[in-house]
Amino acid sequence: MFYSSNSGEESSTKSKMEVKKKKAEQIVELKKKSQCNYCHEKGHWERECKEKKGDEKEDNTTVMLQKVESTLSAPDL
Ligand SMILES: [Zn+2]
């Protein structure tokens, strides 16, 4: 049988991992309870919101299109 002599070190590493795991669990729980500020759906946050990302992408495209359009239809100034 093999018994590790540095079990103290091992347990401290394990407890660190446990803390990490607990934090991750807390975040998951928080996410479950939290409501998205953007689409008001539960389970994710605004910064992770797909709706927002989609809208932002759309917005960017719109802005880009507007820029292109304004460039194409250059005003006679
Ligand atoms: Zn959302």
List keywords for this structure.
binds zinc ion; Znf_CCHC_sf; 65% helix; 77 residues; elongated; CCHC-type domain-containing protein; mainly alpha
Report on the architecture of this protein.
InterPro entries: Znf_CCHC_sf. It is a single chain. By secondary structure, this protein is an all-alpha fold. The chain has a domain at 22-67. Helices cover 65% and strands 0% of the residues. The chain is elongated, with a radius of gyration of 25 Å. The model has no long low-confidence stretch (mean pLDDT 80). Bound molecules: zinc ion. Zinc ion (ZN) is lined by residues 36, 38-39, 41, 44, 49, 51.
Topology:
Blueprint: H1 7-33, H2 50-72
This protein binds zinc ion.
Zinc ion binds at residues 36, 38-39, 41, 44, 49, 51.
Query: What Rg, in angstroms, do the CA atoms define?
Result: 25 Å
- Heteromolecules bound: zinc ion
**Count the helices. How many?**
2
Class computed from helices, strands and strand pairing: mainly alpha
CA-based shape: elongated
By DSSP, the count of extended strands is 0
Mean pLDDT: 80
- How do the SSEs run, as a string of H and E? HH
Helical residue percent band:
55-70%
Give a short account of the largest sheet: none
Quote the distance from N terminus to C terminus. 88 Å
InterPro entries: Znf_CCHC_sf
Biased composition (Basic and acidic residues): 11-20
Region (Disordered): 1-20
Biased composition (Low complexity): 1-10
